[in-house]
Model the fold of this input.
Amino acid sequence: MPELPEVEHVVRALRRVIVGRRILATELNLKRIAPGTSRSAFDRKLRNLRVATVDRRGKYILIEFETGRVLMTHLRMTGKFVCVSADQSLPPYAHVVFYLDDESRLVFCDMRQFAKELLALAPEPLSEEFTEDYFRNTLSRSRRTLKQLLLDQTKVLGLGNIYAVEALFLAGVSPLKTADRLSKLRANLLYQAIRKVLQEAIDAGSTLRIDMSDRNGSYFGTTERFWRVYEREGEPCVNCGAKIRRIVQGGRSTYFCPRCQKR
Done:
C-alpha cells in the first residue's frame, strides 16, 4: 500500500494534470465506491466544478474545487488515477470517470471506496500541528506497543508499516516497548526520526515523474528503495552488524535490530 511519501508524489502529478480543469460530467461505474450516493447524485454534485487544487491529508488525496467542495479518496492497495484522451479506450477497472473540459478523461481504477469526510484523524508528522508535546502526550496516554500506536491513524496520521519500522530503528527504540514507558529523551528521538524518514522518502523521489497516462501496473511497483531494516530479515544491521529480526505485530511484519533496539 502506498504510504505518505508515495501519495505526496501522486498528488503532485495530479496537480499538473487537473488543476484549473472543469468537470463536465462523471461516470460512476461501481456504485459501492461512493456508498450512500446514487450515480445521478454523484454526477450532480461534481458537474461543472473547476478544480482549484489537489492536496493531501496523511494518505488521503483531497481534490478541492473552487466552490469549496472537497472530494477525498484513498489509493488503498492498487488504486490509481489515469488520464486518457478522448480517442483512447478506458483502462481496466475504470470504476470512476471524470470528463474534463479539455476533452481528456481522468479515470480512477480499482479503488475500493470514496471516503466522504475526515473523522477524528490525527495531525500528520510533517505538519505544524504534530509537535513534540503532542507526540509525548500521545505516547504517555497509551499502554500499547510503540509499533501498534504508530500505525493508529487517530494518533499519527499517514505513518504506515514501512516508515514506522524505519523510524523506530533510526531512533534506536524497540518496537515492543510500551508507549507510556518511553522516556522523554527517547520520545523526542522517535519524533525526529519519524519526520526524518518521511522527508527522506519524499526527497528521494523528488525527481520521480508519475506518468498519468500509464494504464498498466501500479505507480510504485518497480521503484527501488533502500531500507535500513524493512524486509532485511537475517541481513546484518547497517550500524552494528547484528542480524535483523522479524516478528509479527497485529498481523504486520516488524523488522528490528535486537542489539541497537534493545527493549
In short: Helices lie at 4-18, 39-46, 132-140, 146-150, 161-171, 184-204. Strands lie at 23-28, 51-57, 60-65, 70-74, 80-84, 94-100, 105-109, 114-115, 245-249, 252-256.
